[in-house]
Amino acid sequence: MHILVTGGAGYIGSHAALRLLRDGHRVVIVDNLYRGHAGAVNAIARAAGRNASNLNFHRLDLLDTQALEHMMRAHAVHAVMHFAALTYVGESVNRPLDYWRANTAGALSLLTAADAAGVTRLIFSSTAATYGEPGPQDVPIREDLVQRPINPYGASKLAFERILTEHTHACKASGKDFACAFLRYFNVCGSDRSGALGEHHDPETHLIPIVLHCLLGRRPQSSNTLSIFGHDYPTPDGTAVRDYVNVEDLVDAHVHTLAALKAGDVRSYNIGTGTGLSVRQIVDAAERVTGLKLKTADAPRRAGDPATLYADPGKIAREIGWKAATREVEPMIEHAWAWMKANPRGYAN
Ligand code: UFG
Q: Ligand 1 centre and the CA of 291: distance in Å?
């Protein structure tokens, strides 16, 4: 199959591109390299070995509908995995227009091009942030929980869920072969176990990479001390609880979902492990994996952070048989740690 991977120079998209190449698909990556890395595309090609000849890369912006359509026709793209997005909750509050432009207008442009070029399947990276701030009775979160995002990031993603739903219904009514799925990610972490790819964000805001950067001595501005945002949450140890899912398992969910889609489907699945871990449990696990001691400091809660978020991943298990293979967080931290030590500047070489 020929699959377009948007955001393929980013963290999750690069892992997806490599998996698809290893599975024998042809892959075309589209990325504007605003937050993605040309080095990630090179790393995918190196790791794909002889399948690297099945990889194409186009530096394009999603808002360039005509160029996208032209490229999709030229490559006879069958399916799109759409990862390209802006993804920082805090930044979205300060720069909402950028988030609506990239995540909603960009995705609409992509869908318009895909429709014109005859693409039949689209898998969309949605987010647990579309659920907003669930109450304690709503956790573990199921897909039918009412979606009330509390920030422009979640809202910009939810808007595209709606656009895709309406488009798919219209295709079904007119007999056009099209199907889509929204995968609502919880906290994605870890990296490719072969060591080829990793997580490189600038700025970095995610817990596990920050913990590892502190342990590597790479956050001198904070004295390599982790600020724990909130220690008085109504959780067993007072710190916030999240569902940490391995990036390779997440990619596997995309592969399974794509294979399961039938014309007219609009599927939504939570992608998590179903287990919640607190910030302190992550710190303990990182200390066990690395054998190092982390300096921590209690800090105020971060705006917009709910106390507890973890998935009920039962729907995707029942409907298509996918479950996260990695149940413990230690192997995810181990792979991330190995890549960071081997690539101290990430992809910036
Ligand atoms: N945290 C700290 N210190 C840090 C960084 C994070 O204590 O230096 C805490 C956060 O406050 C939070 C937990 O660690 O309680 C996890 O934080 P992350 O930033 O790693 O992840 P989030 O849960 O905030 O966000 C993730 C995704 C978002 C998505 C959201 C959905 O990164 O894209 O889940 O709930 F929107």
A: 24
Q: Is the CB of 60 under 6 A from ligand 1?
A: no
Nearest to 4 by CA among 119, 85, 118: 119
Catalytic residue among 11, 153, 233, 269: 153
The best mutation among 243, 284, 302, 309 to test binding of ligand 1, ranked by most ligand atoms within 8 Å of the C-beta, falls on 302
Distances (CA, A) of 337 to 19, 37, 118: 21, 19, 42
Active site annotation includes 34: no
DSSP per-residue string spanning 130-172: GG-S--GGG-SBPTTS----SSHHHHHHHHHHHHHHHHHHHHH
Q: How far is the CA of 40 from the centre of ligand 1 (A)?
A: 24
- CATH number for the domain including 39? 3.40.50.720
Q: State the angle between helix axes of 247-260 and 11-22 in degrees (0 to 180), rounded to the nearest 10.
A: 60
Span 279-291, mean pLDDT?
A: 98
Would you call 72 helix, strand, or coil by DSSP? helix
Give pLDDT tens digits for 91-129. Answer: 999 999 999 999 999 999 999 999 999 999 999 999 999
Number of domains in the chain: 1
Domain extent at residue 52: 2-348
Length of the chain: 349
pTM of the entire predicted model: 0.97
- The predicted-structure confidence for 15-62, as pLDDT tens digits, reads as follows 999 999 999 999 999 999 999 999 999 999 999 999 999 999 999 999
List pLDDT tens digits, range 255-283. 999 999 999 999 999 999 999 999 999 99
CA-CA distance, 209 to 334, in Å (whole number)?
11
Residue with tokens 């509390």: 150
Nearest residue by C-alpha to atom 24 in ligand 1: 305
The whole-chain average pLDDT of the chain stands at: 97
